[in-house]
Structure formats: C-alpha cells, structure tokens
From TrEMBL:
ATP-binding keyword on record: yes
Residue span(s) of domain Leucyl-tRNA synthetase editing: 219-405
SUPFAM superfamilies documented for this protein: Anticodon-binding domain of a subclass of class I aminoacyl-tRNA synthetases (SSF47323), Nucleotidylyl transferase (SSF52374), ValRS/IleRS/LeuRS editing domain (SSF50677)
All copies of domain Methionyl/Valyl/Leucyl/Isoleucyl-tRNA synthetase anticodon-binding, residue ranges: 663-778
UniProt name for this protein: leucine--tRNA ligase
Record-listed E.C. numbers: 6.1.1.4
Domain Aminoacyl-tRNA synthetase class Ia: 12-210, 419-609
GO molecular function, one term: aminoacyl-tRNA deacylase activity
Length: 818
C-alpha cells in the first residue's frame, strides 16, 4: 500500500512538464550535446512491459546525462510501416492507416505515462508522407550512384494463395494461411549494394563501445573468407564453358578432391547432366528449390545429392572426378560449386560416406597412424599424397599451390563474403512506394525530385491476388514516363521497413525540416548518436543496414561521419513471474497500465531497474513491486520529517561523520553506476542510504544541516529513476521547480574516504603484524585480512583454520588476535 497518491503525483507533474516544455530540446543550447536513442517501437497496439523495460531505464540514463550538464536529445518515434498492419486489414477490415495511427495514439499516451523526457515535437512516424518521401528521395540518390539496382531474386511463393510470402508467414515450410507447401519463384527486385561496403563494415575501429557479441555477429554475418577460385576442366563436353569454377579456403587439400558438387541452381547442371541421369536430377533440383537456405545449411541435416553422369578433371592431379548436384551447396555463395574433400571437410565426409566415394587423406595430423579416418580432419598438419608439395606444412602448401595455380592460369586468389546485397523490394502494400517508373521507350526511370512523394494510394486490395496489392490499382500504376512523357508504369513493390530505421536518427535532429531529409548543420552538430540502446535481436539487419546507410550518405557528401551509433547497449528480456517468456498463450503477460494505475509510474520504473543488471533482464514479480513500494514509503517518511525538530545540541559527531561518508560514497557510487547502466546497484545503494537516514533520525543523533543536505542529495539522485516523486518531494522540501533542471550532486573524495585504523595482529599472544583497514570493517573481514598477511601466515603454517584460537577483541578497541 502506498502512503502517498502516486497516481495523482504522476498526473500533476506530467501535465506541468508538458505545459512548461521542460523537455523541449534546443539545437542552439550552448551546453555540450548528447544524443541518446532507444530503438523506436513498432506500433503494435499496446505498450507492453518489454517496451517499458527498454524505455524506462534508457530514460533514466538520458535524465542522468541531462543532470551531468549535457544538452540531451532523447527522442521517440514509431516504426509504423510493416506487415501486421496489413494482416489487421485482412482479418478485421480496418485500413492499415487507421489501425496504425490509432495504435500510435494509444502508445503515445502510454509512453507519456512513463514520465519520459521525450520532446514530442521531434516525434517521427515513418508511415506519414513527410517521412517516407525522404525514403524515396534517398532511393533515387542511391540509384544515381549505382548503389540501387534491379535483379532477379527468388521470393517465397504460396502456389495455392498465389502470393508472395514474407518469411514470417512461413511456418515449417508451409504457408501459415492455407498450409500448402511453399515454393520459390524468381522476381525482378530492387537491391542496395551493401556488399560494396563489406570491408568497411568489418572495420569497427571508430565505434566506441559496442558489445563484443554484436560485433562478432556482424563479423560472421559479413563472413569474409580468403581463398582460391579454381577451375576444373570440362572441355571434353564440347559446351561453351570450359571449366567448373569452385571457391575453396583450403587449396592445400586439392589433391584430396574425390568429387565435385554443384548447387541445384547452378547453370551447368542441366548442360552437363547425361540423358540417363536427367529425370532423377530434375526431380532432385525441383525439390531442393522448395527448401530454405537455413534448412539446407543446417549441419546435422542428412546430406543428399544425385550424380549427374559427368566428370571433371583436377588439373593438379590430372584425375577425373564425378560431378554431383547436392543441396548443401548454396548457389549464392562463392561460385555455387564446391570441390569435395571428404578427408578434411565434415560435410563432404558425410556425403562421401553416404554415396561411397573415396576418402583420401592429404593433410597428415602429426600423430596419424596411416589408417583411414572416421571423421574429417580439419586441423593443421603436413602435406601428404600431394605431388610436388609433399612434406610441406599445410600453411606452406596453401601459399605454394595458390602461387602455382595463378602462374598457370588455373585460378586466382580471391575474397568471398557471406553478406548479400540488401533486398529492398517487398510485394506489400503498407510500405514506402519505390519511386521508379518503367517506360517501353526509356526503360527504368527514377521519379524526379519535384514529383516526390509518390503517395501510397488509400484504396488497395488486401486479399491475396498473386501480385503486390498496388499492382491492381490502375490509377496508381499508370503514369507518365518522367523522361519522354509517354505512358509509363509505376513500380508496385514497396520498400523493406528497415529502410525507415536506417536513417530515422537523422530525421530526429531536424524533424520539421522540409527542404531535405535533414538540415545539414544542426544534424552534423548532433550526429553521431552517442548512445543507442535496444534489443540484441537487431544485431545484424538494422544495425548493419544503418551503418551502411550512413557510410553511403557520407560518400555522397551529405554527412561527414563514419558511423551512426558510437555506443550500443543491449538490454535483456523481462520474463513472466514463472521465469518464462511472457506470452498470451502462457497467460503470464503483465499489463503495465494496470500496475501503473495502482502504484504509479515510479514504482514500476524502480522495480524494472532493480530486478537485475539491465543487460540480463529478469522475471516480473508482484513481490518485487511490493518491495519497491515499501522502499518508496520509507523514503517518503524521511521527506516528511521536519528537520527543525532535530536538536542540534544532541548531535553525535561520530554519526555526523558517518552520515557524510555514506552520503558521499552513495553519490560516487550512483554517479559511476548510472553512467554504466547499472541501475540495480544504483538503487541498492540508495536503499542503503535510506536505511541509514531512517536510523539516525530515530536516534536523534544527526544535526539538521547534515540532514537537509542528505535529503536534498538523495532526491537529486532519485530524480532520474523516479522522476515524479522526486519532483513532488523536492517541492515539498522547499526547493524550486524543477528538480529535472538541477545538476547531479558531486561528491567530496575526502568525505567519502573510509576512516582507517591500524589492526595489531597477534599469533599465540605474540605481535606479528600491523595492518591498515577501513574503520567500518566487520570482525570476519578483519580476521580474513589478518590471515592474509604473509607475516601472520608464516606463523600459522600447518594449522587448520578451524583450530585457531581467536581471541575476542577487548571492549572499546578494534583489533584481533589469533
Ligand atoms: C574444399 C575444402 C576442403 C573446403 C576442406 C573446406 C575444407 P567459408 O570458410 O565459410 O568461406 N563452399 C564453398 N562454396 C560453397 C557453397 N556455395 N556452398 C556450400 N559450401 C561452399 O567456407 C568455404 C568453404 O566452404 C570452401 O572451402 C568450400 O569447401 C565450401 F578441407 O573447399 B572448401
Ligand atoms: Zn519514356
């Protein structure tokens, strides 16, 4: 039970802050700028507790930066395009715009109820033309620069709904709507050439503080491999191609090649397949195209494949090896063909065992007994069965073979990336129309700047028709060619919504600017974002795309920075009280509105920050909420006390000194912990301070000046965490409005220093050492410290600790003996 009306306090101050505009951000403020962002939410309907967990602590951190004296920009917006709005339109007959904007409205209210510092005049809502017109503008700029291009790419296709499916709409290989097995189709689609930036994206040097885990994920996602592109001779077949090119990182194993494998989509499959193998090969290829890359790559999946009835010659060993088609080779990686070396690659080993292909060891482990291995040996060793390279280490072998292969023109050293170009096209309605026009005379033409935005038409067909919903809107599709004025047809795909989030940080800097996506001067003053916070699930897509975006704008001369986000912090996940993920089906979802309606926003904020380290998350608990409520009551108690009641003549100097020390230590601790997002330990130290102050009030051993100072600084430390009660109590304690325009208190190192004393350590009655310890040390710690002393240890050798006699220390004196 709260002893004060938190809900009323919330309402009162939220209104007043808003009215007074205390969080309005001024670009021209003279204080140093600090741009801190939390990932903007998708307007799914209700702000759930996970949103609170992302946003309340980040708000506390931004508030802390304000109190440190920065001009802080901590904005919010809505990631408002995307598939769920369209699904709502299909299932409930609401227009995506209506659905989205009513959710936005509701979530704005909920965000306000958190007591956040957002400057609502800087809100960004991506589905509005004033935002997405700049997506279109950027698209045309990227196109001019050759960074946007069109190519055929497979989409997931439901043969029964006759429609393209998003990955989220595929469950275990079937369409989520009709449960038909999905297939793939090739469509002309738009790409951004992010691969041009692959090497630069691997350079994290100018980032200041990103979690290692995220850097590793980006590194793996980009997947840079150095290797050799080497050709196998097929000139006997009399077709145009004279060789099969394969990419290998292990050219040292070339003498161990016992077969070649082509990806099912490889163009040479149909050209090389023999008549007698054709039916089987075609059946296999058809089936492989239906399964996803993830399935195909999975290591424990059974390797399958079909011999195509043809052979290729290994030019180094002069051997003919059989050619297979197998789905564990991907068409999109390397050359789409692999030299099979079963002795030294596990996938090849599994494949060879299954199809009874020879396994030939060519790298000998140092302890090899010469017998045939039972699994691939992937380590380093000596070259064996390898012609002229016999006896080299395999590292030397890589160098020597690569050099020889290049000299003879059979191949060349190369670098391959896992990273693919960014597929931008979505065959969807609720997104930014791609601003391109097709003309029979002039080909593909970008919509000129003066004709932007290309508005998303209001009327659209949401039932699946087999085409993008915009394609059947004749008045949208038919337009003039921007170049010749003749009849043109608009592109009917819309953009991936990661386009929106790739540059929203720029829009936040000057959100009302209408002559361009952002005003260059103010934006370069704010950028890059000093601190970004959000979920680790965005490790690769969003965080890589936005890095690419900033670099490409830099290269177009629009910005002078290399990275969008200097520091990144990933919060953890908040679980149900049963320690399971919150979900409707488990019935463990906590609705923050209800809790806030009972105990106010601050108790919820404090609870979320107290449950554990922010990056680790933790379970919801009513018990925990109650604990925080009790603590806030105790704090309220302190604020209620009238310091005039204290009798300054009864003051105990030891208590005063101790109080100052605890106060200044707390300030130091809170300052250091808030800086590093350690909210839980910040709150824990504030709790200790409250305990101490309660005790000395009850003793009556504190003077009124120290008391006043302690309460004042306590409230300032509480302000970023519990902004409403801090403001209310600040006013009550007689300070001016607003606590949120005060500085964070500073501490005095001397006052924070521990008093020290010298312990005299005796062993069996004889003095052995003197050690310096903090005056507040507990007996057990003192004993530990004494035992650690080398001088003491040399006199207690061989004695079990439990047998040691510990002499009780004399009354009134600190010290211990052994
Ligand atoms: C022969 C070999 C022998 C290989 C050996 C490895 C070990 P990373 O490091 O990930 O780049 N590979 C090449 N293209 C492929 C494709 N399209 N689909 C599936 N696998 C492909 O992997 C490079 C290795 O993956 C290449 O080196 C190739 O197998 C395989 F003892 O070549 B290796
Ligand atoms: Zn034309």
């Amino acid at each position: 039970e709260l002893r004060f009306d938190a809900v009323e306090i919330d309402r009162k101050w939220q209104e007043r802050w808003e009215r007074d505009g205390i969080y309005r951000v001024d670009d021209n403020d003279h204080r140093p700028k600090w741009f801190e962002m939390t990932m903007y939410p998708y307007p799914s309907g209700d702000l759930h507790i996970g949103h609170w967990y992302a946003m309340a602590p980040s708000d506390a951190h931004a508030r802390f930066r304000r109190m440190q004296g920065y001009n802080v920009l901590h904005p919010i917006g809505f990631d408002a395009f995307g598939l769920p709005a369209e699904n709502a339109a299909i299932s409930r007959g609401i227009h995506p715009y209506e659905w989205t904007m009513s959710n936005v409205e509701n979530m704005r209210r909920q965000l306000r109820s958190m007591g956040t510092v957002y400057d609502w005049e800087r809100e960004v809502v991506c589905c509005l033309p004033e935002y997405y017109r700049w997506n279109q503008w950027f698209f045309t700029k990227l196109y001019e620069r050759g960074l946007a291009y069109r190519a055929k790419a497979p989409v997931v296709w439901c043969p029964s709904c006759q429609t393209v499916l998003a990955n989220e709409q595929v469950l275990n290989g079937v369409c989520e709507r009709c449960e038909t097995t999905i297939t793939r189709r090739d469509f002309e689609q738009w790409f951004f050439r992010i691969t041009d930036y692959a090497d630069e994206l691997l350079d994290f040097d100018t980032l200041e503080e990103w979690p290692d885990k995220i850097l590793t994920m980006q590194r793996n996602w980009i997947g840079r491999s150095e290797g050799v592109d080497i050709g196998f001779d097929i000139s006997d077949y009399g077709i145009e191609e004279r060789e099969i090119r394969t990419f290998t990182t292990r050219i040292d194993t070339i003498f161990g090649v016992t077969f070649l494998v082509l990806a099912p989509e490889h163009p040479l499959v149909s050209k090389l397949t023999s008549d007698s193998r054709r039916a089987e090969v075609e059946a296999y290829v058809g089936q492989a195209r239906a399964s996803s890359e993830i399935d195909r790559l999975s290591a424990d999946r059974d390797k399958t494949g079909v011999f195509i009835g043809a052979y290729a010659r290994n030019r180094l060993s002069n051997e003919q090896v059989p050619i297979y088609v197998a789905d564990y080779v991907l068409t999109t990686y390397g050359t789409g063909a692999v030299m099979g070396v079963p002795a030294h690659d596990q996938r090849d080993y599994d494949f060879a065992r299954k199809y009874r292909l020879p396994v030939r060891t060519v790298i000998a482990p140092i302890t090899w007994d010469g017998r045939e291995p039972t699994e691939a040996f992937i380590g380093d060793g000596f070259m064996t069965n390898s012609g002229a390279y016999e006896g080299m280490t395999n590292e030397e072998g890589i160098e020597a073979i690569a050099k020889d292969v290049e000299k003879r023109g059979w191949g060349h050293r190369t670098v391959t990336y896992r990273l693919r170009d960014w597929l931008i096209s979505r065959q969807r309605y609720w997104g930014t129309p791609i601003p391109m026009v097709y003309c029979d005379e002039c080909g593909v033409q970008p919509v000129p700047e003066a004709d932007l935005p290309v508005l998303l038409p209001e009327d659209a067909e949401f039932r699946p028709t087999g085409e993008s919903p915009l394609a059947i809107n004749e008045s949208f599709v038919n337009t003039e060619c921007p170049k010749c004025g003749g009849p043109g047809r608009r592109e009917t795909d819309t953009m991936d919504t990661f386009m929106d989030s790739s540059w929203y940080m720029l829009r936040y800097c000057t959100p009302q600017f209408s002559d361009g996506p952002f005003e260059p001067q103010a934006t370069s003053d704010w950028m890059p974002v000093q601190q970004y916070t959000g979920g680790a699930e965005h490790a690769v897509m969003h965080l890589l795309y936005s890095r690419f975006f900033i670099k490409s704008l830099r290269d177009m001369g629009m910005l002078d920075i290399d990275e969008p986000f200097l520091r990144l912090f990933n919060q953890g996940v908040i679980l149900g009280s049963d320690h399971e993920k919150m979900s409707k089906s488990r019935g463990n979802v906590v609705n923050p509105d209800d809790v806030v309606g009972q105990v106010g926003a601050d108790a919820v904020r404090c609870f979320l920050m107290f449950i554990g380290p922010w990056d680790q998350g933790g379970p919801w608990s009513d018990e925990g909420i109650n604990g925080v409520v009790r603590w806030l009551n105790r704090a309220w108690n302190l604020v209620e006390h009238d310091p005039a009641q204290l009798d300054d003549s009864a003051t105990d100097t030891v208590t005063v000194r101790e109080t100052q020390r605890i106060l200044h230590q707390t300030i130091r601790k809170c300052y250091e912990d808030l800086d590093k997002f350690k909210f839980n330990t910040t709150i824990a130290s504030l709790m200790e301070l409250v305990n101490h102050l309660s005790r000395v009030w009850n003793d009556g051993s504190i003077d009124s000046a120290t008391w006043r100072e302690s309460i004042e600084k306590f409230l300032l430390m509480l302000a970023p965490i519990a902004p409403h009660v801090a403001e209310e109590w600040w006013e009550r304690a007689g300070h001016g409005y607003s606590i949120h325009q005060q500085s964070f208190p500073s501490w005095d190192e001397e006052l924070a220093a521990e008093d020290e004393l010298t312990l005299v350590v005796q062993v069996n009655g004889r003095l052995r050492d003197r050690i310096t310890v903090p005056a507040s040390i507990e007996d057990d710690d003192a004993r530990e410290r004494a035992l650690e002393s080398p001088k003491v240890q040399s006199h207690i050798d061989g004695q079990d600790r439990a047998e040691r006699r510990v002499r009780p220390r004399p009354p009134g004196q600190r010290g211990g003996g052994l």
